[in-house]
Design a protein that fits this description.
The chain is α+β, with helices and mostly antiparallel strands and about 775 residues long. It is about 35% helix and about 15% strand. It has 27 helices and 27 strands. The strands form 9 sheets. It has a 5-stranded antiparallel sheet, sandwiched between helices. A 5-stranded mixed sheet has the order 21-27-26-23-24, with no helix packed on it. A 3-stranded mixed sheet has the order 3-5-4, with helices on one face. Helix 27 links the parallel strand 18 and strand 19. The relative contact order is 0.07.
Length: about 775
């Protein structure tokens, strides 16, 4: 009885005595293997201390492989208390007979104790190791000891644990280890330099065969030779050292290290789609190298779950000359016109409507910091409906909207959509923000673009799959009204409405519902495309990380082609549900027939009529640009039938019959378009150009008579008087434009007639 109590007391003392080394050992960081959504290995990361060490649960290791290791190292593991007296006695006998140490008696628990706290040499160290083994047995279950040991066995080559070694030698996860490969691994720890099949395959096979015979495993030599062949340095290289999607996998590793989260089981990435995206980018770059387009990035998102399905950070991670290790998905670049859908969405939220007419005429915005944008083709289209202005990506209407909404308000809207980069640079934008002078990332663009097919709901990106039974991380945060999201989607999907800016644009035509938006940085350093179907969103950037200007063309159709091909591949495998764009909320929008020119409800005198969505509660007056009433003589077109309307002969008749607002006077006259201009309301006549505060430079190297200022007016009648610093200069012509000689110094320009008077002050240096 007293002996039993002593044993219990001793075990309690061993269990309760401090053992900080054990806690530190169990907390050692482990690397991890990252798989794609379908279980294919993407990359293996070492532990933070540099060791190739992974953790695998004991139940994930085949019973046969565990049996091999137990028979190789400690066949009575489950029956001894940490020290095996029978093994000690046998070792003493063998060593005494040989006259030297030829056999040890270390159990698995003693080996683990030595890993946790390396022992000093000699008998004293051996005794401490045995005591530590007893302490482990008092604290941990047998399976906990076995799991801790098998995950930390040193195999040499900076590899620790069965999981890392199985992958390094046989390109297999430990749950796929067979007995032959387990035997080849089990003999390595005794003499890593001699028994490693990657170094000495013949010796390793002989050692494994001896183990099999000694332990009664029944392994055939041929099976061991075949298994050892997989360990050869040149065998299964891609599987042993996978390096897929390096920017994506690097990002996950950083996220996990920062959060202190153990290794991931599955990433959201689809390796097949990833490789397809990489190939498509590489093939296009081969054709564009002469244009200094040497790099590119792609991100593909599932709109329903936020899962990132493909992530190409650069054309090649290994291309040092092209800075291939830079992650282009996260790099900040000017996005060009890809910001316009968000600007037009905010305009809808602030009271604009799809049938509103926006001016596409020469315009100077601002005063001291004057800004005069132009369209890409250097043409001015006069009055353009809101729908057409966005679908055709016209610049001046976009700046007009931003000027009306306010730069600060649009910046706040972009930040709410997830553009954190805009918040960091909000003081630098001005009205150029409408054309994309802010620097944003491709990730931010794609994530925000997905808001449109999501009906105005924000999207949280996900890089790892939820564990079985885990909750889907789907954001329900509303950042845009359903109506605005639906209308922008409808406009971007409206092929005829983009005819004015893009012509037929066959690249953007797909067999499934889709929307696209392209963009070019203002100095042509970068070209981008965003594309979306109901289920997927794709973002593509192309250019170079050095910021060199693309030569000869903007080429935004190139990334658009890649985006379209990726959407086609996705839709062919897993089609989006029907009903895109998402239907608007019942009663919030209604369909109306509007004049193609004025956007107002059409009358019998409007020859071009289009169907348009308007807000249900909007009270619209009939078209005031054309006379007559009712819809009787109108020719009704479908949504955005701009291509058909613009090519009809009766377009000229439409212009002749129209009475344009005063601001279109110069545009009509100087482009030889027929049509009259409505008289301005009393006091509404104004000088459109130049703006007050504008600064001009007088060149002394040019003849004075060849230097002049264009004075453009709105609402003044022909014959209105023009003055400069009080001196009469002449009379306005029918176009409302006057050419004023440029003279150094301050100039007060005045235009007046019976309709009113307006003045601006400029400076000429």
């Amino acid at each position: 009885m007293s002996l039993a109590l002593c044993l219990l007391a001793g075990r309690a003392a061993l269990r309760l005595a401090p053992f900080p080394e054990l806690h530190a050992f169990r907390d050692r960081p482990a690397g991890f293997a990252l798989h794609d959504r379908n279980g294919r290995l993407l990359r293996v990361f070492p532990a933070q201390d540099g060791a190739r060490r992974e953790w695998v649960a004991l139940q994930e290791i085949p019973a046969g492989a565990l049996r091999v290791f137990l028979l190789a190292e400690d066949r009575r593991f489950y029956f001894h208390p940490g020290v095996d007296p029978a093994a000690v006695a046998a070792a003493v006998f063998r060593n005494a007979r040989a006259g030297r140490t030829v056999s040890g008696a270390s159990t698995i628990t003693m080996q683990l104790a030595r890993m946790i706290r390396p022992r000093a040499p000699g008998m004293r160290g051996k005794i401490r190791e045995a005591l530590d083994a007893l302490r482990l047995e008092a604290r941990l279950s047998k399976n906990e000891i076995l799991e801790l040991w098998i995950n930390n066995i040193p195999f040499g080559s900076n590899i620790e644990g069965i999981a890392a070694m199985s992958r390094a030698r046989f390109a297999r996860a430990p749950d796929h280890l067979d007995d032959a490969r387990a035997a080849l691994l089990a003999v390595i720890p005794r003499r890593p330099a001699l028994f490693d099949p990657a170094r000495e395959p013949e010796t390793a096979v002989a050692a494994a065969l001896a183990l099999s015979r000694r332990a009664g495993l029944g392994l055939e030599e041929a099976a061991l030779i075949e298994a050892a062949a997989d360990a050869a340095p040149g065998a299964l290289t891609e599987l042993k050292h996978p390096f897929f999607a390096p920017h994506f996998t690097d990002r996950i590793a950083r996220m996990k290290n920062e959060a202190g989260i153990p290794g991931a089981a599955r990433a959201t990435l689809d390796l097949d789609l990833q490789l397809f995206a990489e190939r498509r980018l590489a093939s296009e770059l081969l054709l564009t190298a002469d244009s200094r387009i040497t790099n590119g990035s792609i991100i593909v998102i599932d709109n329903f779950s936020g899962e990132v399905l493909a992530y190409v950070g650069s054309a090649s991670w290994h291309d040092v000359e092209a800075s291939g290790q830079i992650d282009g998905v996260r790099v900040l670049n000017q996005p060009g016109s890809t910001l316009k859908p968000f600007l037009f969405a905010q305009a809808l939220e602030k009271g604009f409507a799809p049938n509103d007419v926006l001016p596409d005429i020469p315009t100077v915005f601002g005063m001291v910091e004057a800004y005069s944008p132009a369209n890409f083709d250097r043409r001015f289209n006069g009055p353009v409906r809101f729908r057409v202005a966005l679908a055709s990506s016209l610049n001046i209407p976009a700046v007009y909207l931003l000027d009306a909404l306010g730069v600060a308000a649009f910046e706040e809207y972009l930040v709410a959509l997830g553009f954190d980069s805009v918040a960091a640079s909000s003081a630098d934008h001005g009205l150029g923000l409408a054309l994309g002078n802010a620097e944003v990332s491709l990730e931010e663009l794609a994530r925000a673009f997905a808001v449109f097919p999501r009906g105005g709901l924000a999207l949280d990106l996900r890089f790892e799959l939820d564990p079985p039974g885990g909750a889907q991380n789907r954001s329900a945060r509303r950042v845009m009204s359903e109506e605005s999201a639906w209308l922008i989607t409808d406009i971007l999907a409206d092929e005829p409405s983009r005819f004015l800016g893009f012509g037929q644009a066959p690249i953007m035509r797909t067999d499934f519902p889709s929307i696209f938006k392209t963009g070019t940085a203002n100095q042509f350093q970068h070209i981008l495309a965003l594309g979306a179907s109901p289920r997927y969103t794709v973002g593509v950037w192309m250019g170079n990380f050095s910021g060199e200007t693309v030569i000869g063309r903007t080429g935004s159709s190139i990334p658009a082609l890649i985006a379209a091909d990726l959407l086609k591949a996705l839709e062919s495998r897993n089609p989006s549900p029907a009903g895109f764009p998402l239907p608007p909320r019942a009663g919030s929008l209604r369909e109306a027939l509007v004049c193609s020119l004025s956007g107002m409800p059409a009358t019998g005198a409007c020859r071009g009529v289009a169907r348009e969505w308007v807000f249900a509660d909007s009270g619209l007056a009939p078209c005031s640009w054309h006379g007559g009433g009712g819809i009787g003589g109108a020719s009704a077109l479908g949504f955005g039938d701009e291509a058909a309307w613009a090519t009809q002969e009766w377009m000229e008749a439409e212009f002749r019959a129209a009475r344009f607002p005063p601001e279109y006077q110069a545009w009509l006259a100087e482009r030889f378009r027929q049509g009259t201009v409505a008289q301005a309301a009393p006091g509404a006549a104004r000088i459109r150009l130049p703006v007050s505060g504008a600064v001009f430079h007088f060149s002394h190297s040019l003849p004075p008579e060849s230097q002049a200022i264009r004075v453009e007016t709105s609402g003044f009648s022909p014959g209105a008087r023009v003055f400069s610093n009080g001196a009469f200069q002449g009379l306005l012509g029918g176009s409302g434009v006057f050419v004023l000689p440029l003279r150094p110094g301050a100039q007060l320009i005045v235009v007046e007639d019976e309709n009113g008077r307006d003045s601006v002050e400029i400076m000429v240096y």
